[in-house]
Design a protein that fits this description.
mainly alpha
């Protein structure tokens, strides 16, 4: 299930980046929200953490979101799933998650 959800997230990201509008942004938000909700159930806490960060970015950012920031979230989720990181013990993944959260907070704060 998670690989299919990650593929859907990537597809939604691609569509949003090609056609950034409220509908495609909503689709990307829902895909990340679904991952957030299901990731904890299936023991992927880092996927949930990164998905929460992406949801916050999509929900709270008032300015155009840089594609690189969205891509970083999607790529991080892909790596976490690919490497089957089911605990929060991976220091690199934890640092990456924290950095993504910091960049989102910084970007959202600039728009307010």
């Amino acid at each position: 299930w998670i690989e299919a959800d990650v593929a859907l997230l990537a597809d939604c990201r691609d569509v949003f980046e090609a056609t950034p509008n409220a509908e495609t942004r909503g689709d990307l938000y829902r895909a990340s929200l679904d991952l957030k909700g299901q990731a904890l159930t299936f023991e992927y806490p880092l996927v949930a953490r990164v998905a929460v960060s992406l949801c916050k970015l999509l929900d709270e950012a008032s300015a155009a979101i840089p594609a690189t920031l969205i891509d970083a979230h999607v790529d991080a989720i892909r790596v976490i799933v690919r490497d089957n990181l089911k605990t929060t013990g991976d220091k690199v993944a934890m640092l990456l998650s924290a950095e993504l959260e910091a960049r989102v907070a910084e970007f959202v704060a600039k728009g307010k």
